[in-house]
Amino acid sequence: xxxxxxxxxxxxxxxxxxxxxxxxxxxxADYYRHRFPQSEVDADLELRDLIQRLALEMSAYGYRRITxxxxxxxxxxxxxxxxxxxxxxxxxxx
Length: 94
What we know:
Blueprint: H1 2-10, H2 17-24, H3 28-35, H4 40-57, H5 63-72, H6 79-85
């Protein structure tokens, strides 16, 4: 059904996505989730790997210094994301 909505949107039909989703009883969020899948999982895995390598390389660094080092290397990240990546408990800070 989501493909039907996508085809109608592509053909510039008169109905909006909201109207089509309501007619087909599909949540609009489901349409957009299917239409624009996020690769956040891959990005988090790459970030977690980078954080872990930094933590091993610089064992005296805590999450604040790891965050600063990531920013220095051009990675857009804040301290909360570094802590969240640590939630798996694979990274230990000294």
